[in-house]
Amino acid sequence: MLFSLPLFAKLGFFCLFITPALSYSQESVLVVTSSQGGIYQDFYATLKNESNKKTSLSQVNFSDVDNKILDNHKLIVSIGYKAAKAISKYETQNTVIHSLIPDNESSHNNIPCMNNNCYKVYINQPTNRYIKLFKKLFPTGKKLVLATINTNSKISKQVKSISEKNNIPYKEIYIQKDSNISRIFTSKLNNSDVLLALPNPEIYNANNAKSIILSSYHANVPIIAYSKSFTKAGALISLYSSIDDIAEKTANIINSIIIDGPQRQKEYYPDNFTIEINSAVARSLNIEIDTKSAIKRKIK
Amino acid sequence: MFYKSILITLTIITQILPNTALAEEPTTSQLTESDFFNDFPVVLSATRLKQSKNNSPTATTIIDRDMIEASGFTEIVDLLRLAPGMLVNYDSGHVANAGYQFLLDRYRVRLQVLVDGMSVYTPLLGEMPWTQLGLTVDDIERIEVIRGPSSASYGPNAMTGVISIITRHAVLDKGSKFKVNQGVNGRSEQYFTIGDTKGDFDYRLSLAKRKDDGFKRRYDSKDLSIVNFRGDYQATNNDEITFSFSNNSGIYQEDASDGLNDSMPEHTKSVKQLSLQSKWVHSFSDGDNFTLNYYQQNYNDNNTYLGAFDAPFGNAPIDEGAKTKRNNIEFTYTTYSDWYKLTLGALYRKDKTLSSQFLYNINKDIITRQLFTNAELHLNEKNILNIGLLHDNNDTGGTTLAPRIALNHHINKNHTTRISYSESTRSPFALEEYTNRVINLPNASTVGPLYPGYDITYWEDLYDLEPERIKSFDIGYIGKLNNTPTEIDIRFYKSQLSNIIYLKDIEVGGFPTIVPGYYSQGDAFNITGFEATLSHKFKNTKVILNYAKTKIDEVKLASEVKSGYETGAPENIISLLIIHDFNNKIKGSAGYYHTGSYQQLCCESGDLQAPRNRLDLTLTKSFKLAGYNSKIKFVLQNATNDKVETRLYNNYDRQGYISFSLEL
């Protein structure tokens, strides 16, 4: 049957069954950014550098996207929450990588994956990485404290479970919405605690940061935080992935998909991370701390 | 019609536009990449950080919020009992004195006392007006007691140490709080605090009314109204501006305290304190920062009475009041690297004092100019060298240099030793340098040629005084026992004090009641001592034990007047604070305070106080009242009713109060 088909049909059939990688290699990758400047531009630049040289990347702002543009690209990479949310509304059947998005319930709801060709690269760190950091810094005598607005959240359960497995004393501070954050922290923290500040804008935001940092500091409680600026503001240490780290990870996934086709793993955390220490705070709280590189080595 | 249409259109647009814009923004509760990469304002700039005790050139005690609340004290000065070597004494129910190691008199405090960096002693007498501070115990976040000469950092008057009171950042007191303390001895205190955030501006306003009857056998009640405002404005991520304002208006009963001043009848006086402060802290991105601090401090002491002198002098109007105004501007720049921390600074201060009888016809400002530098050099992993130098020039003390050098050796991460040498000074205060105390006695001329007129000068300015000086040598140890929550802080010291200023009496027969005199100087003495703090944290209990042993000897007197310097310091001072958390929202504490025998020279000359012991107990229960956080606290002070007979009758009888607070 096959041999009786015209030549062009045979070729078409061959193309259909040949590795999907080939079809990607012939398409350019559309990078949809949440904005055109700042971190998104940095991300795009790193993505371009780290991607396979044969891959052609083109950038568009999420507000300029339409079905036609999306259909013309077999591989679409969204950068940032807004871009991811916009792309997910189009329900494209093409391969999509949502990068630079947070891993939390709300994000999962707002950025659904419509098909099996959907990948996510998170900004967050895997919870276990923070627990390792805590254990490295405070092997004994300290209690890990997590502030949460929902004690049944995925992250609460994860931290609790990993802490229990590692025999780490653990407590939760429950924050009611619209409550007086500084009073809660002042009354609940004591000097054997270490506050693990994981990203949650209802707790940690520019308005509350001051009161939380000061309350913790006055209670002699060091903060393990999730961003560089949190450390600069007054946390003891932070563990985070930079824009370059996340862009690199995203480029690796693009390269893998292009070369090897669809990937089994759908959700990724950045492999590389940075440790930032506020040595002035460490000195002030009388905490002996290793160098950034030594800590990083031990956590990896 | 046209304009009306435009107006309607504009109104519709303004109603729609914000909604359209918001629709594109994620809600504030939505976590996005901006939460990871946006800047937070710098909260813990280096100026707000506590210097590690292990690296400090001077022994330092921190009295934190937990200790403050557990102590049950409502007078700020009493909190100093929680630092080793601190002496607290009361001349009357509202005249409190505090000294480090020794207490020569209520005036001429040889400590620098700072409230958020604002120097608060009075320029006239050098007195520390503890009761007149424009804040209450509840406004305080912590007190740092720097034990040892510190003029190299804080200028003259930081002769024996520094008490740095740090108030709570406004952001920590959001919401409203009411507190009422009601107790025996006429104690009635009401506090109201409100705090909020408006954009980048955090503010707290505290209002307080406090009164009590003072000591049982004295005419020394007080009735105070206190206002304290603090605003913290985060101008940019690296710039914070703090504004503060405080006012303390008080009515005080005054008596002659059993013969110390027989001419003074029982009367009332009023004192108003007003302060304004503005502080700008700029943090550079590399961690360096500079601070510009301006403040104004005013005291208006209105104290007049009709002095009742012996015949033939009769009655005379006495005015012991004074008006003082301090304007101070200070600039510091601090730079950090891995191996050093360097602070450079300059200060300009103008103290104006007017007092109709203490400084009769004298109207002189005291200008102070300072340049200072302090460096913390990390020589290697184990050794830190602290070097400090302050150049001071002022109108009463002339030019002085105050150096300090200290080497801290970290034996390992848990054990540190310190060896230091420092020199400090105290410049004469306005009354000492320019004294011209004159009273008007209408009948004086009838006594004879000794009293030629009505205006009698009985304190004269005879000498140009030099600054008092101290040289101090200190060896310290700070340790933590094998990673346990047990901390030890030990200090041995030897200090030489010289050029001590004193009021010398003139022997004149027939002069009425108050003996005439002049300020002179030249006395000297040595102080040697040992201090230790042991603190331990059990599971639910915290214990802080302080001990100080002090000896004054090698007294050299310039005058032939018997001084009593040797007994100016108690041999032993002990304080013990135990804080226990009973877990079911009940906290308890016990504070024991022992002061050995000593005499406060000015007012109790010849009267050696017997050792004093005081036991204070507190019990606090937290609960919800109509959904609001509430606390009830029971405080019993001097539970054993320990009493010591002194001429000042300055004994706290056993007394207690109940405190109730509600947070809205």
Describe the structure.
The complex is a heterodimer of chains A (300) and B (664). Chain A is α/β, with parallel strands linked by helices and 300 residues long. In chain A, 43% of the residues lie in helices and 18% in strands. Chain A has 14 helices and twelve strands. In chain A, the strands form two sheets. Chain A has a six-stranded parallel β-sheet with strand order 2-1-3-4-5-11. A six-stranded mixed β-sheet of chain A has the order 7-6-8-9-10-12, with helices on both faces. In chain A, strand 8, helix 10 and strand 9 form a beta-alpha-beta unit. In chain A, helix 3 crosses helix 12, helix 7 packs across helix 14 and helix 9 runs parallel beside helix 10. In chain B, the strands form four sheets. Chain B has a 22-stranded antiparallel barrel. A five-stranded mixed β-sheet of chain B has the order 1-6-7-4-5. The two termini of chain B are 52 Å apart. Chain B is built from five helices and 33 strands. The longest helix of chain B has 23 residues. Chain B is globular and about 90 Å long. Chain B has one domain: TonB-dependent receptor, beta-barrel domain (Maltoporin, Chain A). In chain B, strand 31 and strand 32 form a beta hairpin. At the A-B interface, helix 6, helix 9, helix 10, helix 11 and helix 13 of A face helix 2 of B.
Task: Summarize the structure in short.
The complex is a heterodimer of chains A (300) and B (664). With 300 residues, chain A is of the alpha/beta class.
What attributes characterize this protein structure?
heterodimer, A: 300 residues, alpha/beta, Rossmann fold, 2 domains, six-stranded mixed β-sheet, 14 helices, disordered N terminus, B: 664 residues, mainly beta, Maltoporin, Chain A, 22-stranded antiparallel β-barrel, five-stranded mixed β-sheet, 6% helix
